[in-house]
Write a structure and sequence with these properties.
The protein has helices at 8-18, 33-43, 51-67, 74-77, 87-98, 125-138, 146-149, 157-163, 175-192, 197-203, 208-218, 237-249, 271-278, 286-293, 303-326, 334-350, and strands at residues 47-49, 116-118, 121-123, 225-228, 231-234, 282-284.
Length: 366
């Protein structure tokens, strides 16, 4: 370096000492979900991964995805998912994933389970929620408007009970918790983001990981964590699926434009572990498998549940890596694998082809 050339390292240190931004790109955000999932996998004793089963599943998943031409565009092909690419759809997706948890029923008779009737069709599970939101909007109830959520005169608990009413005697599970999530999110949006979900998304500056971190740090009802072996474990299922649904709905453009979708893991719920077990990827200890097969509840935040969720995240990551190893030019991420596995599991449920029940945990996290 000549005497006339500046020392860039010293200049950078000077900028930092004066609090001046150098203009270099910020360090990428990291949700730490994958790191925590690997830790759970390394220390699990009741859930294990089958290496050969995982590799075989990767080949099967990739082949089927190619045959079905599966991509993020498949998201919009579902009849109930919103189609317009506008702010109203952003609000719809936010509410949908704010409340996207715990739809399973104790009833053995499917006709008695919580269900929503919409346009002459009966919907259960996740689709019952989506149908209920559409139904409310068609009844001129502004259920996707954040300002409405905190107006307890117009948006009373009774109005919300009406919005999520069932066509069967069984009500929607955890209704009180859902109402709490709606009120809490409405207050935070009003106080911190001018009541605008678009403003919230804009603050993440097109970073998927940054939006997840923003959601879990500002909204307690998105902060999906547990403790395992005295260590905090992050899952952030609903925060991550909110980002993924925006990405898929808007096809990576506009409100769904994120430059780091590879930072998003699969969404640790009760359906994907079921599918991974059916594919021969996951193995359970006798006591855990007995609990699941006998439809006994798995404690929320307990060791079994953390192992099921953590190992599932890590398993999908290994499936993704195996697909990339076999097909280096593949455009694949954990989100697409999760979407595909979920859709496939729902098809098996309709065909009554499930080989093991899903585990049963009551919580707002999934």
């Amino acid at each position: 370096m000549s005497d006339s050339e500046p020392d860039e390292e010293l200049l950078e240190l000077l900028r930092q000492s004066l609090g001046i931004n150098s203009g270099s790109p910020p360090k990428p955000s990291d949700t730490k979900v994958l790191k925590d999932a690997e830790y759970v996998y390394d220390h699990s004793i009741d859930v294990a991964l089958d290496t050969y089963g995982t590799k075989a599943a990767a080949a099967t998943i990739w082949t089927l995805m190619q045959e079905k031409e599966y991509s993020f565009k498949t998201w919009s092909e579902h009849s109930l998912h919103p189609k317009p690419k506008d702010e109203n759809t952003v609000n719809f997706i936010f509410l949908m994933d704010l409340l996207n948890f715990c739809f399973w029923s104790d009833h053995s008779d499917p006709t008695q389970r919580f269900a929503v009737e919409y346009h002459g069709q009966r919907y259960t599970g996740y689709w019952s929620l989506v149908a209920a939101i559409h139904r409310a909007l068609e009844e001129d109830i502004p259920i996707t408007t954040p300002a409405f959520w905190i107006n307890e005169t117009d948006c009373s608990d009774d109005v919300l009970k009406h919005v999520f009413r069932s066509v069967t005697p069984e009500p929607i599970p955890l209704l009180d918790e859902r109402i709490h999530c709606i009120r809490e999110a409405g207050r935070i949006l009003a106080s911190d983001f001018s009541g605008s979900i678009v403003d919230l998304i804009s603050e993440a500056d097109h970073s998927a990981a940054a939006l997840v971190i923003l959601l879990v740090t500002r909204f307690p009802c998105f902060n999906d964590t547990a403790t395992f072996e005295s260590r905090p474990i992050r899952f952030h299922k609903r925060a991550q699926i909110l980002v993924a649904d925006l990405w898929a709905c808007f096809e990576g453009q506009g409100y769904g434009a994120f430059h780091d979708m590879d930072k998003i893991t699969m969404f640790a719920d009760y359906r994907i572990p079921q599918m991974l077990h059916s594919l021969g990827c996951l193995r359970y200890s006798p006591s855990l498998e007995n609990c699941i097969r006998n439809l006994k509840e798995v404690e929320s935040g307990g060791s079994w549940e953390v192992q099921l969720r953590g190992c599932s995240i890590w398993c999908v990551e290994l499936i993704r890596r195996e697909i990339m190893r076999q097909h280096p030019k593949a455009e694949i991420n954990a989100v697409l694998i999760d979407f595909f596995l979920y859709d496939t599991m729902k098809e098996r449920e309709l065909e009554r082809a499930e080989t093991i029940p899903h585990h049963r945990t009551r919580s707002i996290w999934y």
